[in-house]
């Protein structure tokens, strides 16, 4: 299993979207260099308000470009980086990966998948009605979160559009992704 990095994005300020970059640098144990969400402890405002000492399991946010294609088919034009992700991928079923999967991004960087992003109401502020496209229910009534996955940086390195992504699954039994 492998895929490709299509876009990389970061922002040093708290805004919903993140501008696209020519490259980003991942820092082990921290996240994306210069990104507002980088750090050892939580940086997302709602989580900081609850407990600023909690470990940051959301250092790097990845979204699959296939989601952007899907929402475009429903009439929502969403560019890479617009939903606040750091890395946009193609060719990998991100939502189907088990917790603990390691992704090598480019030559050096390695992230470990920690869980699912929980889409928030800010998505509807960005594009009214978009939240229903990225948060739904399956046939059994269980919530399905499609707004990407979160990870921590194990090995730092530069990541660029066009870089290959390789996947290393954790030992079995695999644990499905849960919200982090």
Overall description:
This protein has 180 residues and is of the alpha+beta class. Helix content is 13%, strand content 32%. The chain contains four helices and 13 strands. The chain has helices at residues 45-50, 65-73, 122-126, 131-134; strands at residues 2-9, 20-21, 24-27, 31-32, 60-64, 87-90, 102-105, 109-116, 135-137, 143-145, 149-155, 157-159, 164-168. The strands form three sheets. The protein has a seven-stranded mixed barrel. Strand 3 (24-27) and strand 4 (31-32) form a beta hairpin. It is globular and about 35 Å long. The model has no long low-confidence stretch (mean pLDDT 96).
How would you summarize this macromolecular structure in one to three sentences?
The protein is of the alpha+beta class and 180 residues long. It is 13% helix and 32% strand.
How do the strands and helices of this protein lay out in sequence?
Blueprint: E1 2-9, E2 20-21, E3 24-27, E4 31-32, H1 45-50, E5 60-64, H2 65-73, E6 87-90, E7 102-105, E8 109-116, H3 122-126, H4 131-134, E9 135-137, E10 143-145, E11 149-155, E12 157-159, E13 164-168
Parallel strand pairs: 5-6
Antiparallel strand pairs: 1-2, 1-6, 1-13, 3-4, 3-12, 5-11, 7-8, 7-13, 8-11, 9-10
Stretches with pLDDT under 50, minimum 5 residues: none
**Number of E-state strands:** 13
Beta-strand content estimate:
25-35%
What would you call the shape?
globular
Keywords for this entry:
180 residues, alpha+beta, 13% helix, 3-stranded antiparallel β-sheet
